[in-house]
Amino acid sequence: MSEPRTSVSAMLETAVTALGGATRDGQVQMAEEVGRALADDQHLLVQAGTGTGKSLAYLVPSLLHDKRVVVATATLALQHQLVERDVPRLMEAMKGQEGVDTSYAVLKGRSNYACLHRVREGVPDDQGALVQLPEGSMGQKVLELRAWAEEEAEQGGSGERDNAPRHTEREWRQVSVGHRDCLGAQRCPFGQECFAELAREKAHRSHLVITNHSLLAIDAIEGVPMIPEYDAVVIDEAHELVARVTQAATDELTAPDVERAARRARKYVSTEGASNPADDLADAGEALRDAVTTASPGRFDVLPEHLGDALQLVRDAARACVSGFPKEKPGEGDGDPGRQQAKGSVQDVFAVAERMAADLESDVLWLSEGSERSAPRLCVAPLQVWGQMRDKLLTDKTVVMTSATLMLGGDFASVATSVGLKPSERVVDGGSVPEGEGVLPWRGVDVGSPFDYGRQGILYVARHLPPPGRDGLVKAQLDEIAELVDAADGRTLGLFSSRRAAEAAAEAVRERLPHLTTLAQGDAQLPELAKQFVEDHHTVLFGTLSLWQGLDVPGDTCQLVLIDRIPFPRPDDPLMSARQKAADKAGGNGFMQVAATHAALLMAQGAGRLIRTTTDRGVVAVLDPRLATARYGSFLKASLPPMWTTTDPAVVRQALTRLAASAG
């Protein structure tokens, strides 16, 4: 086994001391394990509980590695923490250390940067004409964004969306482009100033590149070069990886998408014979609209013939339309953004229609219902991503995956399998390294947590309640919620399986406990709700999935986390149901491999909202008796922090009352 050039633990101690802190046992162990993985070119899954200090534990060995390392995060919040706090402070502390390259860069998708061509020239409309400004208040916001982008260009700023004045998604699209609409640095008159190109150039000069799961997936798995050549990748928030890779490989198509592409193309494609290829594409869009109207929403186990015919019609018409764009001679392109956008739109339609029409066993195709504001959408996603991840990422790079929740059911097997690593390939300390063609050895390590969950937290399972049904919360559950919230005197984060359940619980608590402030997701933007929740301890905040993963509220603010039911995927979830069916067909247990694993991960994330520091105390209350009574309950409980467990409601109410009294 080779050794890192410099002692990882010694460098970690130097860094932590320079930052005014002290190393922790789990942090030191993790840093040494990451250093070992990078040195030995061996994959690593490392579970590190909240409070371990895992960012420094992987950044320090990454700096000591002799080749470029990519760090990929799932959420903007963690990326922001790394870029604005952890990495700059670490680089300052490490500056001058022999053999340490402290260069780093942040890399995001092109649409995350302002486009100077769009800012200065305007946005092409559906016919390709440049529109300088939209009407009304949106125009004023676009002016503000343009002024900001010009200031960024003058001052050498990054032009990143995160640094822009407050805006909506629609407003940002007026000053940005995706990769299809980009003219390219060589053809764009502002290519030398381009924020996205400058970010890529900086990444090419840097030892450490910080990006996100989606860009990593596009680069490594989709094969679209987005990131400079690198040797290893550290994937933080790795419990999100499969979902993000799936999302990056999911395509959608609507009839309006096809018709819009046809309108954009009409003025650019050449007409030979009786019909314009853009008109044929518009006709194909109309055929798709008719086919979608007669199809039933949901997953298609077999592609309906009329829908397959419409998709083939769109595919063939889009191919002909792309061919109808005049070919540009090398060096003579005029950089017409309207034509670039039009051709890109048609190419997108062709690629998605071709994929859907192929009706591959490796894809899942379904129809989502439309609404008053949106048309029904055809969606296609990969049935699984572990094969692509194994072949296109794990085979070529050294990969370190870390999260507070990687051991589901008390083991790494579920997560390892989902990302393309086989349990039989795991290297156990003291054991031999598996050998053979195509074998990818990996290690799984749990470095623990600085928290004493057995003393700091109680897991309460309301065994006496009726199992949850399809009709939402019943009186017994609402009574239980009110009693627990009353005992906690507020200080409650309620995590619900649906917006309807969260709103029903909020309404009941407002009615029964009017002296408390009860907030429901949707009452305001999440940052505003979180601010109010933190500032007033006698506040209750009820919401859905985004609260499970997007809220960090240490201290007395949150002493009770309520989970209304085990968060199994909906039976009609097209992708999850297809994956479950495929697992059963392959001889496995689809329920445990897909539904129970999904629920275990979400429950672990939800329960993790409670204990955020070594002084936090509180209760995780699960109002679903199946956690105590069902055979799969032990698997789910083994995925949660090891808290003291009870099913006695009186014991829990007394504990919450004592906590509330001590908090004041």
UniProtKB/TrEMBL annotation:
Key word ATP-binding present:
yes
All copies of domain Helicase ATP-binding, residue ranges = 13-288
Q: What is catalysed by this protein?
A: ATP + H2O = ADP + phosphate + H(+)
Q: Which GO terms describe its molecular function?
A: 5'-3' DNA helicase activity; ATP binding; hydrolase activity, acting on acid anhydrides, in phosphorus-containing anhydrides; nucleic acid binding
Basic and acidic residues: which segments have biased composition?
Answer: 159-172
Q: SUPFAM superfamilies attached here?
A: P-loop containing nucleoside triphosphate hydrolases
Which Enzyme Commission number(s) are on file for it? 5.6.2.3
Q: Which InterPro entries does the annotation name?
A: ATP-dep_Helicase_C, DEAD/DEAH_box_helicase_dom, DinG/Rad3-like, Helic_SF1/SF2_ATP-bd_DinG/Rad3, Helicase_ATP-bd, P-loop_NTPase
Indicate what this protein is called per its UniProt record. ATP-dependent helicase DinG
